Amino acid sequence: MANKTQPTSASVEEFLNKVEKEQKRKDSFEIAAMMETLTGKKPVMWGDSIVGFGQFRYKTKSGCEDNWFTCGFSPRKANISLYLMGCDIKQSQDLLDQLGKHKTGVGCLYINKLADINTEVLKKIIKRTIELENN
Description:
By secondary structure, the protein is of the alpha+beta class. The protein is built from 4 helices and 8 strands; from the N terminus they run H-H-E-E-E-E-E-E-H-E-E-H.
């Protein structure tokens, strides 16, 4: 079954400008700039709520192939979800221990705001994700 979340031509800037909470909106623009610098790729809307950078082809356990972004994020109501698809986020446990206030999923990192974390450590986690994806 193909992934329903695909790249669109929607404006990333317009999407981010609609983020209701001012601090989350500012943080989202900062994360977008950070990911663009680290990936060297322009942001692209994936579906209607994810900002993605780069693209790679992956194969599911069932053998289906699809495209996905290398890293991305979504300013959700509860938090900012960072999608670091190159690896299981636990592979960066050494850096997560230095990050600050966060939660994790398999390929996701959840933060409330950038002020809660060490952004230099976040950059290292994103770099590691990009490197793992490119190898």
